[in-house]
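Deviations from the work plan: none for this task. Representative record:
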Amino acid sequence: MTMVDQAPVVEVVGATVRFPAELALDRVDFRMFAGEVHSLMGENGAGKSTLIKALTGALPLDAGVIRLHGEQVRFSTPHDALAAGISTVYQEIDLLPNLTVAENIWLGREPRHLGVIDWRRMRTAARGVLVDLGLDIDPASLLGTHSLAVQQLVAIARAISTEVKVLVLDEPTSSLDLDEVAELFRVIRELKQRGVAILFVSHFLDQVYEICDRVTVLRGGRLVGEYLTRELLRIDLVQKMLGRSSGELVTRQRSDPPTAELTAPYLSARGIEAPGIDGVDVDLVEGEVLGVAGLLGSGRSELARAITGVDGITSGVIRIAGTPRHPRQPRQAISLGVVYSSENRRTDGIISELSIRENITLALQAQRGILHRIPASRERELAASWIDALDIRPSDPERAAGTLSGGNQQKLLLARLLALAPRALVLDEPTRGIDVGAKVEIQNLVTELADNGLSVMFISAELEEVLRVSNRVLVMRGGELVGSHAADSLTVDSLLAMVARPDDEG
Amino acid sequence: MTSVPVTTEKAPTGVVRRFLSRRASWVPVFAAVVLLVVIFAAAQAYFGNILTPRVISALLLDNAYLFILAVGMTFVILTGGIDLSVGAVMAFTGMFGASLMRDGMPSAAVVPIMLLLGAAFGLAIGVLVQYFDVQPFIASLAAMFAARGLAFMVSLDSIKVEDGAILWLQSTRLQAGVGSWYITPTGIIALLVVLVGALVLAFTRFGRTIYAIGGSEQSARLMGLPVVRTKLLAYVVSGVCAGLAGVVFTAYTGASYPLNGIGTELDTIAAVVIGGTLLTGGSGYVVGSMIGVFVYGTIKTVISFLGADQSWTRISIGALLLMFVVVQRVIVARSNRR
Amino acid sequence: MKKILRHRMFWPVIALLALIVLNTIARPSFISITVQNGQLYGALIDILRNSAPLMLVSLGMMIVIATRGIDLSVGAIMAVSGAVALTIIADSPSPDDLGTVLVAILVGVLVSLLLGIWNGFLVAVVGVQPIIATLVLMLAGRGVALLITGGFITTINSAPYKFMAQGYVIGLPFAFFVSIAAIVIVALIERRTALGVLTEAVGINPEASRLAGVRARGIIWGAYAASGVLAGFAGILYTSNIMAADANAAGLYIELYAILAVVLGGTSLAGGKFTVAGTVVGVFTIETLRSTILFLGVPSAVAPLFLAIVVVIVVLVQSQRLRGAVAKLAQALRPKKPEVAR
């Protein structure tokens, strides 16, 4: 199916997008061919969605060009991209549940007679497109009355009802079951036959290998490379996504793990069920760093949020200090000494307009209650000591937290949690997207905290990092726990193999 | 495979299901109809003389301006916005029109001016909302202040209208017989506005885009729909309706008074919500708003039949509004869980 | 100097001073204060006295706005509390008795507290949008007030009651002291306890606050309750000034003036950071503006027009500021940068 000699339908050269605090895309090249399914792979923050937005006119490029059939184009709105033949089905279904299926397909292009919408013709036309997709639903029904899978297919119906040259499917299968995925793949193959270039973004490796001809890998906003799927081993793909040259030695910081068997765990969870995770057991032992390895969508974040009361659990038992507890709010987990730091430090972490000082003392203050205000002098002292201890820069405690760099915001969050004197610390990707110096500082801090008796759960997409800081490593895949190993017994390669193994080889 | 399982569609089990899947958004309107019927039935049982052609004809006559305002408000609320200026704009256009007529301008020229004035207010609100990111609530509030101030600037006292054509709108009764059904030109205007509003929303791209914006402005934009133009136009429609309501209300009272329509914006919003329009936008019908106004008018009539204080009208409407808002909130929360 | 210019209070204070200077130029008597019978008189003193109800309401509105909310029902609550208090006094055999008056005030304020709690319940527990939730009371509240007064304008004669709005203590209007007390109490509660900073945290980022263990629900609920109580006191002051409970006129449009005062004082309608001092300045600015309009010989009924102009200017300045920030950002990146939701 590959036609290397053929000119690409669409080509992005040197794409660069800057956000206030980070470089989201750094000189990325990307191309798509007619009749080919192309996958864009990468972890959180790799720049996948930024590239898609740039390609579909939802976000302007700060540098670089987009060429369509060899001609340079500029999309200032999604509408421009649409008019040029680039249709997108977004991850969160961007249709209108309050309107009918037929309208969702034809909105903006409704068949009209003397300016009056011809509903009958619209329904007939919609039925035609739906039948093409093998979907037998009433075009006059409201979209919101259908399942997400059907809504997804309606979104695709809308996309292909135009003269589509490039179809972008952003995580189209995340809410579909097996049969529905098969149905979608049948549609994708058919479109391929028609010569449509398809961009298929998914974090399910099985699906990528099943349907895609070509893969482009991004990491940290940079291009890692473009490969033919059949020539790229699964394990190599994962390695390229997670980033690390094979065979490199890992200097371990936690060489002498306490034996978990001797110490009773501070937090022990059994059979945890929650949206996105299925029957997982976890033990957080004092003085130990528990690494969690897994790809995006493996359930690693969901697990962290479930046991810390952020999302709660649907079934299972959580024992904290030996007593069964079921925190339903972070507040309750905090009062039990279990604290959580989100992977989204900007949206779910810092309070950007409050000062560094107020951010550091926020959780402690919330815990003490409204009436027991931390005395101003004590607050300043606290802030100063944490700024000093974690080397937060700039060190002015009155500066607004939103002005800090990513690494310093992360330290700020750690300071907020550590000020609570917690017993168990759950860190979700604390080092993502921060500079190398701050990263090493945070890794060192984590091991130091464990040495001081804290129990730490450390989630990261970087396997090397997980191995470096952890005593034990949990491997997650598809919402399930597939292994728990002493970090000493693992190498990056063996861990990589476990993380990347196809799901059906369990 | 590890995706989250989705509930598979059950096979359609007949007419009811098909009806619900197509017409789920009409359910609140039916609820309003049921409410109206219940009020009528209860009042009829209690008084025995409510369901007469006279009383029901009077409902349309007395509330003609409110029907017109409710149609405009429906457009705005469907986009997810709100227009607090309608009562004040109605008062101002009424005052301005009355003063022009007092100075001898013919009504054929005055009425278009009044409609244009209303449109200008709507446009101003739309521009503030769309281009300056002002919340609709604040922008229409500013317009409300301005219109009220301007109304008093025209005159602090009421201005009597002696223009024959304007008074004709109110005084002419197309009657089916003495003591029987009748309708005034103002009533016909109100019904026409409802009809046109309903048709525009159902059968034009402008109308459908209004629903799309209310469903999700972001999605509408991604679909390439003319979001900016449509939102501006929705406020203009509301403004024109307020201007027209100014004409009708002036005809109704035979004079213009700068204090006219204080609190009318709240009555209008309440009627629209009771008629089944979601305040978050995207779902609702002009016909529902008409029912909402009927509910409002009937409650008012019932309370005057009871001889009770008219403040009960506002209290009842407030209670109904509360009921509908809470029910809406439950519905929205449930659909978010899907 | 730069620091002063950047201070959030800078523009509000400048606006107020400019108004005062303009007034003084137009009529030098504006700043003159005369002493009669040991009591101070003058335009400025009038502003201090007349601003008291708006001050109370605005302080409550500020707390609600800081949580990302809004309270449209304050005017209606004023009407109810005034109606309750005056009805109690009117029905009492001894309207001049201090005890009667205190009971009347207490009951009026308690009823307002209940109404505030009701608003908070709808917003924080049921999850209704604040505009809508408070619209219910805005609509029904005046009706309730009318019922309490029996549809009439209840008038009373009660010296202690009258004293609140019209009396003088050490040469200054008693109402002014009520204002000061409210300002001090609100400032103390917000800044001496942790309520202020937790309120701001909830207003700026509700989800991050939840993750940090903040009880957002209680804080939001409390904000509406506080707004209710303050509006209740404002209703008492209002009726004390005219010695009549007019359910239709009491607190009419005050929600709008209060929102304007809060915004003028530099608190964003999007919630978050708030300053008591800013709101105080905002209230005085509005009151001075009203006094100016009156002085200009504009009928008080036309005054809303001027306020509309002020509202538009304020929102445009705020939005311009936003544009400025965007422009600066765009300059750092590239010339043309449309706003895109990311």
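Chain C touches chain B through 46 residues (CB under 8 Å).
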